[in-house]
Amino acid sequence: MSFGEFLLVVVLALPALGALAVAAIPRDLPARVAGTVAAALTLVAALALAVDRAGSWTAYAATTPAVRPWHALDLPWVPGLDLRFHLGVDGISWPLVVLTALLTLLCCGYTCWRVPAGGSGRALVALLLVVEVGILGTFLALDLVLFFLFFEIVLLPMYAIIVGWGGDGTDPAAVAARRRAARKFALYTLFGSVLLLVGVYVVVAAAGTADIVALTGGTGLSRGTQLAAFTLLAVAFAVKSPLWPLHSWLPDAHTQAPTVGSVLLAGVLLKMGTYGLIRVAVGVAPEGARWAAPVLGVLAVAAILIGSLVCLAQTELKRLIAYSSVGHMGFVLLGIATLTATGIQAALIGNVAHGIITGLLFFLAGAIKDRTHTGSLRELSGLRETAPRLSGLLAFAAVASLGLPGLAGFWGEAFAVVAAVEVGGALWITLAVLAAFGGALTAAYLLRLLRQVTHGPATPAVAGLKPGLAGAEVAAWAPLVLLALAVGLAPTLVLGVAEAPVTALVEVLR
Question: Could you identify which of 79, 176, 237, 494 might form a hypothetical disulfide with 273, taking C-beta atoms 3.0 to 4.6 angstroms apart as the criterion?
Fold first, then answer.
């Protein structure tokens, strides 16, 4: 077994073994610390996947496979059905793998300091690690059936996190609200899962293989099969992303989830949908992608505008951040819909930037709610006067989210618009203009948020806050602040590793 193959196994095995270790340790705090150590080792292994990748693409030509992983592990899994345990990582998946490992580490570390009301801390950490296994496996799988199984692993533990540790209290109304949100999340996700399973079956039955490497480019699939498969797969991934109009589960799930659940949900779980759209739907059914591109573009811009307008009307902090994800994912979809190298690169860096910035926003929203016991914007004014550090971090995250040049949120949104202009034609130019207007609306609702929360006289809920930050909070938030700056100032951290595989993917779309 090569070093790369070993790392692929380690990246999945460490959080799985960590979850088992957490469950086996009887004392709560040592169990949470053990889970955090497992998450830290997973991040180290994820970063190491980029080692020894030089030259992976030097042999690329039009006749070679469109997916050329840096490292791959391909073992027989179910020989009778020709299914294989096929894992691999390249420049499209690696940034998301690292982001998943980082956010899981920050969430597990955060629980060592504060456990939300509900079940035990060790159970929460174990579930976070199981969620990490599912997300990492989704980004690493190069077999459609394996991809589907990892995609589904996330459902039950995230449902349990929302039900067990979510909500605002233990009274019957609060319990009912979080259970309702969890059920909505589960039902929507199951609906998408059924469509994904049918789409996978259509592809595998027609092509005779589940190997994503062999299938990329539509090999062995007729035009009719590609149209049917893309429709099924695109709707399935739209539910998970979530993309308008299949987004209605998201605000309730975010509002009711505990802070660490919201961070993982927004930071990386949503990216499973947009990653699947690029890797599986577009890659496996390129003719279907070309056929549906105008519709995807229209839906993307609708998501940007509607998400922004809804945010302008929101009065609750976490719901506003949740609805902002609909608009940001709209920019990601717009980039994908252009089917250009610029657009797909914009989608990839938009995914990473959204995970960093929205993860930070939900950490901050959770901290504000823990301190003030309210999420109502009307009751949170004056934060700048009583908690200037917390207020300053919220301002930083908000301006990063609105796409200020020099911060991570700028590149994905700006180049999604540029990609639409590059495609040209009346439709795409119109979509580009409307998306740019949606970017202005994004700035409007985030600046409105800052005006309501940080300025003005301090409300009773805010007046008694202490100005300092806990050490655990600084440790959890500092990496996200630094990454928002680093990706904003040096986008090549993401775009550099993704350039070659994106170019290869675009070649098969022509």
Answer: 237
Find tokens 């090569």 and name the residue.
2
- Two structure tokens written together for 405: 């040049």
Instruction: Please give the Cα distance from 161 to 184 (Å, whole number).
Output: 14
pLDDT tens digits, 111-128: 888 888 777 888 999 999
pTM (predicted TM-score): 0.92
Beta bridge partners of 48: none
Q: Report yes or no: 286 and 508 within 8 Å, Cβ to Cβ.
A: yes
CA angle 450, 453, 454 (to 5 degrees): 70
Ordered DSSP codes for 347-377: HHHHHHHHHHHHHHHHHHHHHHHHHHS--BG
Task: Give a three-class secondary structure readout of 188-219.
Answer: HHHHHHHHHHHHHHHHHHHHCCCEHHHHCCCC
Q: How many Å apart are CA 112 and CA 103, to the nearest integer?
A: 15
Strand partners for 73: 87
CA 156/CA 159 separation, integer angstroms: 5
- Backbone Cα Rg of the chain: 22
DSSP code for 119: S
Structure confidence by residue, pLDDT tens digits, 424-471: 888 999 999 999 999 999 999 999 998 888 887 878 887 877 777 777
Cβ(96)–Cβ(268) under 8 Å? yes
DSSP string, 132-170: HHHHHHHHHB-BHHHHHHHHHHTHHHHHHHHHHH-SS-S
Bridge partners (DSSP) listed for residue 78:
83
Q: Find the angle CA(349)-CA(390)-CA(177) to the nearest 5 degrees.
A: 80
Whether the bond into 172 is cis, omega within 30 of 0: no
CA angle 75, 198, 154 (to 5 degrees): 65
The Cα 41–Cα 485 span in angstroms is: 25
The residues pairing with 85 across neighbouring beta strands, listed in sequence order, are 75
Position 37 confidence tier, pLDDT thresholds 50, 70, 90? very high
Confirm if 77 and 84 have CB atoms less than 8 A apart.
Answer: yes
Instruction: Look at residue 55 and give its three-state secondary structure.
Output: coil
Q: What confidence category does residue 57 fall into, taking pLDDT thresholds of 50, 70 and 90? A: very low
Backbone angles phi, psi at 85, to 5 degrees: -85, 90
Helices (H), 373-401: 383-386, 388-401
Is residue 77 within 8 A of residue 85, CB to CB? The reply is: yes
Tokens found for residue 65: 């496979």
